[in-house]
User: Which sequence fits this backbone?
């Protein structure tokens, strides 16, 4: 019962750079992604997809396909519509116009690539052969291939019963905007455009539907970030109770928000399996992914800025239009990007007079959904470019303009004009530090030197605050149908004293198997090696929402803290009885429960666990033989905790070709207390790289007929090793007062600021020629040449004016 | 218009995969990725784009890095193929490149990892002490969507140092 230890010191794992425990299976090729799973008797599916951007379906002739070798089923839209409801994801906000996104289109297709029929065959090759034999007769309709066309006065509403082509119109007004504009020293009106791109996980979508008629159980293995939400959505459209559906998200090859949806393809696969009573697999090919998964970030902003002579921005007016494509996506609705921009556009700045009109526009394009940052990359682009333009107009240093507008450390908690509560942060400190750590002075020296050699180098920076781990109050405000108010965890100690942790979040690169084990190890005083974290299977994990919106460390991590501490309380109650001590005087460490100050009085956690299950007579009266707890955590008050960061970069621009070469990049980020800085840095790097992709390369281009022109990696360019420089990362850790352990979310952050930082750097590079307002992303060669021309016009004007 | 359906012809091919001779009956149109993954159950070779642009399906064929999604299995008849499964079956016996990826956090979702690791191994075989520029050039055909490449580059540098110091560079 006792030993001679004089002190128990288990170093805390929270905050340690622990290497990831999940890595060996990925490094050795043993990870199990959905396409690695094989079910007995499994068949394979291929989709027939619309070749039109907008058309009526006149007829679907499937006889030849049905007779083709190896074919088991051709499922048409008409058949599917008899057995499954369409996906309906309605906002609760006034003025919302609803859409019905069918598993397979029955009467009309609304975007090129939309699923029209599903062919199931013995193998994928045969399924694709037969898919080519399905003869779909279309009657084309006029295509709304842009926001401009969709909002034109004579545009025909895309959806039945709609009065125009707006999913939602939102309006916010706070402070006295008109008075601030009337009194301003100067005003600016700016147009900013971020073109359509997406997360492009390297693993495409895919799923296996397996209806077991004996158990009357439908199992769906699917590459998803949100298995529980997929189960709820499937139950709704299929009319099955959730108890008859099991969704398993195995190892998933990247998500970035894109895999956090219920997809029509998943429903079609379930229908096929239920009809055939066989497992059916579908693995999306890359072209399908580009055409028909989820696109993101197509924003058109017009903003008006009122500023004072000293650089303070006193008011902001914004008109925000987002091209949301053809349908509202489940479970987010088509309000996510517009709602986010409306709320966060003033960003980290003290702008107290603000008006925003935000419109989610329906077009004949692939549905638009959340992608890492959701609305904030575009919002940050607008406000940061505006700050630079104010600086230009006043002849001030852009750093100084920001310094005068940023919310200062002594103002937290700060309630923004839109009612967001910025809990804590280091807005100015991060900007100061990025200039220092990122080598701003040296960048300016390099720039001078390059200019003497006739080369154009430019320095740019940008900062933001990011709402993370937002839950109940925030999602109620957004009007989504499901309030993503919490995530949850089960902590279960077995008779050996080992612990299994099941979480409702899903890890597809974020390292939850490591970080949550770090948290639980600290709470229970046992080594990480004794803890196993699992996720993804709705049959074994507690209900919750999944991984998105920079929330898992705070919410699922918080749930782990709560559940583990409840198990610890049970251990303390038991040990207190055995040690004749007060539970409040006990602590844990090095696998023991011991008396604080007298660690020689202790019991091994493994003994307590074994006795709980095998020697119940030792338990205190009334204590159950259970060492497990389930907890959910919502980070009250639910408005989120605000992380912040500042980004700095150096670019070289070739004015002849329009080429932009990114030379240096540095980030200072503040996500509060870090569970594992190694993982935080990896997330920052990845976010920045995706942000750089969207700023320089990635763009979905549609033609007038609604045909997508960028459907392969040869015309949709992803950043590679030679496009991304080394990315330096410095940390500030301002704890959140709102969350357990002071953690803030950070998964999305890296992707938010590269657009404005790069645009600012390109404008800076061109400044010896003249001023160009770099207002459009991505910065393709063609666009950069346009900015060079703009700078030349400005330069010649200035010369004329000066002569 | 109905497309003419061409029945595929069957071929028996024999390849050496990770040191073991394997004979498989394949369709003429069957891709090497499908044969490795679905016929030989070597699912460590991943398929990211099926048009030779992402590098996830990288394997070593007769000593050269190839994209298995651009090769018909019949073309691999008689070839010697090495996939990720040839190296380190568990945490305890990882190849130095795998170990360095682990140590430096050179992976997140893991989908690009096998192709990335094989490409890095090949680089270090041909250039045991590469500069950062050479590392980036060698990996430029492998897309990673998660890491921003920073820790991948660090991992390759660390692996090079370790292999040189231990004398394990091939």
Assistant:
């Amino acid at each position: 019962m006792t030993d001679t230890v004089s002190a128990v010191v288990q170093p805390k794992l929270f905050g340690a750079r622990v290497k990831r425990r999940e890595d060996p299976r990925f490094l050795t090729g043993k990870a199990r992604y959905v396409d690695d799973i094989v079910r007995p008797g499994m068949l394979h599916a291929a989709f027939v997809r619309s070749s039109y951007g907008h058309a009526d379906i006149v007829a679907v002739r499937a006889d030849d396909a049905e007779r083709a070798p190896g074919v088991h089923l051709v499922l048409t839209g008409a058949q599917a519509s008899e057995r499954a409801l369409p996906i309906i994801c309605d906002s609760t906000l006034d003025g919302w116009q609803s859409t019905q996104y069918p598993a397979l289109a029955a009467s009309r297709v609304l975007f090129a690539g939309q699923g029209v029929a599903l062919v199931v065959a013995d193998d994928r090759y045969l399924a694709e052969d037969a898919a080519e034999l399905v003869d779909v007769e279309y009657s084309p309709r006029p295509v709304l291939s842009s926001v401009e066309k969709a909002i034109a006065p004579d545009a025909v509403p895309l959806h039945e019963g709609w009065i125009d082509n707006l999913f939602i119109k939102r309006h916010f007004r706070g402070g006295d905007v008109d008075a601030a504009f009337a009194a301003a020293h100067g005003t600016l009106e700016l147009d900013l455009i971020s073109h359509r791109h997406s997360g492009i996980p390297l693993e495409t979508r895919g799923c296996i539907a397996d209806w077991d008629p004996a158990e009357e159980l439908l199992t769906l293995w699917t590459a998803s970030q949100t298995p529980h939400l997929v189960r709820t959505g499937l139950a709704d459209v299929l009319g099955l109770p959730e108890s008859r559906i099991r969704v398993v998200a195995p190892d998933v090859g990247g998500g970035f928000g894109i895999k956090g949806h219920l997809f029509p393809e998943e429903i079609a696969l379930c229908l096929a399996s239920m009809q055939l009573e066989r497992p059916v697999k579908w693995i999306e090919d890359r072209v399908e992914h580009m055409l028909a998964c989820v696109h993101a970030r197509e924003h058109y902003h017009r903003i008006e800025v009122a500023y004072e002579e000293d650089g303070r921005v006193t008011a902001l007016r914004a008109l925000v239009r987002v091209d949301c494509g053809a349908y509202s996506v489940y479970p987010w609705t088509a309000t996510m990007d517009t709602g986010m921009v409306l709320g966060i556009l003033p960003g980290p700045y003290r702008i107290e007079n603000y008006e925003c009109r935000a419109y989610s526009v329906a077009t004949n394009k692939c549905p638009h959904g959340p992608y890492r940052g959701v609305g904030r990359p575009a919002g940050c682009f607008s406000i940061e470019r505006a700050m630079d333009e104010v600086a230009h107009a006043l002849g001030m240093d852009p750093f100084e303009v920001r310094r005068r507008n940023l919310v200062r450390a002594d103002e937290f908690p700060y309630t923004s004009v839109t009612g967001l509560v910025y809990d804590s942060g280091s807005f100015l400190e991060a900007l100061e530090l990025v200039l220092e750590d990122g080598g701003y002075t040296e960048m300016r020296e390099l720039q001078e030197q390059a200019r003497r050699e006739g080369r154009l180098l430019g320095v740019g920076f940008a900062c933001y605050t990011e709402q993370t781990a937002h839950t109940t109050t925030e999602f109620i405000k957004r009007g989504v149908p499901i309030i993503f108010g919490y995530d949850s965890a089960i902590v279960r100690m077995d008779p050996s004293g080992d612990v299994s942790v099941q979480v409702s979040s899903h890890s597809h690169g974020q390292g939850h198997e490591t970080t949550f084990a770090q948290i639980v190890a600290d709470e229970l005083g046992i080594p990480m090696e004794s803890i196993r974290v699992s996720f993804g299977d709705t049959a074994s994990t507690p209900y919750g929402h999944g991984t998105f919106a920079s929330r898992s460390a705070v919410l699922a991590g918080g749930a782990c803290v709560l559940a583990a501490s409840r198990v610890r309380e049970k251990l303390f109650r038991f040990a207190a009885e055995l040690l004749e001590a007060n539970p409040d005087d006990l602590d844990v460490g090095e696998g023991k429960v011991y008396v604080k100050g007298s660690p020689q009085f202790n019991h091994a956690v493994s003994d307590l666990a074994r006795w709980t299950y095998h020697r119940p007579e030792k338990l205190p009266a009334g204590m159950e033989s259970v060492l497990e707890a389930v907890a959910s955590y919502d980070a009250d008050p639910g408005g989120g905790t605000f992380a912040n960061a500042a980004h700095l970069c150096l670019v070289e621009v070739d004015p002849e070709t329009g080429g932009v070469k990114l030379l240096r990049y540095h980030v200072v980020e503040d996500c509060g207390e870090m569970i594992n800085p190694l993982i935080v840095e990896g997330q920052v790097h990845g976010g920045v790289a995706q942000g750089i992709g969207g700023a320089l390369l990635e763009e979905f281009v549609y033609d007038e007929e609604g045909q997508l022109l960028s459907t392969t990696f040869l015309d949709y360019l992803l950043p590679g090793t030679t496009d991304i420089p080394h990315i330096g990362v410095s940390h500030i850790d301002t704890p959140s007062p709102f969350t357990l352990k002071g953690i803030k979310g950070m998964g999305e952050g890296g992707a938010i600021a590269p657009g404005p930082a790069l645009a600012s750097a390109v404008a800076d590079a061109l400044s010896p020629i003249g001023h160009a307002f770099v207002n459009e992303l991505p910065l393709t060669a063609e666009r950069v040449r346009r900015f060079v021309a703009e700078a030349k016009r400005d330069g010649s004007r200035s010369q004329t004016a000066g002569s | 218009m109905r497309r003419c359906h061409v029945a595929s012809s069957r071929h028996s091919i024999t390849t050496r995969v990770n040191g073991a001779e394997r004979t498989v009956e394949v369709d003429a149109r069957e891709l090497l990725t499908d044969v490795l993954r679905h016929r030989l159950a070597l699912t460590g070779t991943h398929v990211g784009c099926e048009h030779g642009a992402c590098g996830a399906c990288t394997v070593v064929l007769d000593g050269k890095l190839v994209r298995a999604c651009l090769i018909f299995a019949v073309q691999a008849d008689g070839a010697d193929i090495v996939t990720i499964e040839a190296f380190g079956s568990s945490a305890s016996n990882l190849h130095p490149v795998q170990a360095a990826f682990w140590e430096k956090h050179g992976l997140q979702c893991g989908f690009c990892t096998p192709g990335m690791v094989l490409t890095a191994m090949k680089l270090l075989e041909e250039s045991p002490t590469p500069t950062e520029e050479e590392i980036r050039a060698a990996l430029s055909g492998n897309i990673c969507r998660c890491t921003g490449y920073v820790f991948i580059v660090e991992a390759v540098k660390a692996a090079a140092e370790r292999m040189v110091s231990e004398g394990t560079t091939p």
User: Anything to note?
Assistant: Residues 552-579 of chain A form the longest helix (28 residues).
